[in-house]
Amino acid sequence: MDKNSQYLFIDFEFTMPEYKGFPKGFFPEIIEVGLVFVKNQEIIDRFSSYVQPTHFTKLTERCKSFLHIEQNQVNEGITLEQLVQRLGMYKHSTIITWGNMDMKVLRQCCQKNKVPFPFAGKEIDLSMEYKRFFGDQNQTGLWKAVQEYGKEGTGKHHCALDDAMTTLNIFKLVEKDKRYLQKPEPTTIGDRIDFSKVLNKFAL
């Protein structure tokens, strides 16, 4: 993680249709946000909140069961406009997510609700960085990737803030490995000694 840099680690949870059939015009909407803001290698801010969906406001049984989020929790959450306003505080940060769905859904929600997209900085899909770095053929899930490092995820899977923290932790692990691989190979004794001079000395 570079010094004098700022990163925003984000995880969203979305609405889900029932297993059988999509409602007409259905699109996923953000119902929970977790973010961790890191500046100069220090965690400066953490934020977590439920978010009110605007188009398909009633959560499906599948969504509630899978995410362990109840209807009353999203009903009492912040609005999309308030979420975007909060995200705008980190407008020029490097945005880091696990997978590309978070930014896709945020863009779509902003478009559907005629709300300006809040970010102008670089966006990094850490799952693709991980895939390229380790040469995995398949895209690895966030918590599986952490376990491959011999560690555990932070808190509870599919809790947005815990997933954002887990994304930060694996980002630091990958960056550490990158630095390790970039270190120059140690010099050999042959690099340190000019054997031609040694042989010439003994040839005299």
UniProtKB/TrEMBL annotation:
Its EC number is 3.1.16.-. It holds the Pfam family RNase_T. InterPro entries: 3-5_Exoribonuclease, ERI-1_3'hExo-like, Ribonucl_H, RNaseH-like_sf, RNaseH_sf. It is an enzyme of class 3 (hydrolase). Keywords: Exonuclease, Hydrolase, Nuclease. Residues 6-180 form the Exonuclease domain. One of its GO terms (molecular function) is nucleic acid binding. It comes from the Bacteria. PANTHER family: 3'-5' EXONUCLEASE ERI1-RELATED, 3'-5' EXORIBONUCLEASE 1-RELATED. This is Exonuclease (Sporulation inhibitor KapD). The gene is kapD.
